[in-house]
Amino acid sequence: MKRARSWLAWAALISVLAGCGGDQGGTGGAAKGGSGPTRVTCTIGMIADAARIIGGPHVQVTGLMGPGVDPHLYKASEGDIQKLTGAAVILYLGLNLEGKMGDLMVKMSRTRPTFAVSEFVPESLLREPPEFLGHYDPHIWFDVSLWRRSVERVRDALSELDPSHRADFERAAAAYDDSLEALHAWVGAEMATVPKGRRVLVTAHDAFGYFGRAYDVDVVGLQGISTVTEYGLADVRRLVDLITSRGVKAVFIESSVPRRSIDAVVEGCRARGHAVTVGGTLYSDAMGADGTPEGTYVGMVRANVSTIVGALR
After folding, report:
1. What is the pTM for the complete model shown?
2. Which of 122, 176, 210, 246 is the most exposed place for a label (fewest CB within 10 A)?
3. Each residue of 133-161: pLDDT tens digit?
């Protein structure tokens, strides 16, 4: 019965969108003109951060998913609907990251510019793990070189909507790209300081696959790529076997995933006589709090890498 009520609520939200129509002189349309900054609504914090940096004073950015929010399980609220219908442009990641909100993005694309920032990442560079039912891994921000391509999509989306400020967007994007290029090099150099045999990253869900591929790290998650997939005793045993056999000293929790799953792994290792500690909290599907270094993409990546290196090295 509870599931039925949830479905009816979701259907009602979709119906609201279907009735929105184009924004004929409404808040979203007005935001495109010269009456103020362009209203940009983004799903996850990493996209909102890029939009603020590239758009500068020409944009007013609203993010839907804040610190600690899991986008895989996120359901749009009535307030979110208002933020989406009041936007001149909507930016989301795509690749099924936003779960059911993907249907919402299709609806919104009929009334206003709506872009998946993953569009600029070639399919040949996307991970397609067999256990993910033929879908691509959406966690592209963990490879900074791939995220640079997504930032290009943000730049072009803003330029298409507001061509009068294209030069400003391009200058800001170029400067940001330089910082991301330096960040990519820094991550590689930092991870290289950890001996190869110790480069084993154990987390609650399999979000760090791109990180592992880009920076030569063995990555193992208790849950699958999406947190919708539940873990069981067999998954805990599998992880305990790996940790004890390889002598892994630290595992990591995630800010957007309950820590009880990793605690179960730690207890399982202790029962085997292997001491493993929680090496710290990583930002996986959400950034840190606004106003903190971790509340930016660059700060989040640096915090993650420093935590990983400190625990494994």
Report:
1. 0.86
2. 122
3. 678 999 999 999 999 999 999 999 999 99
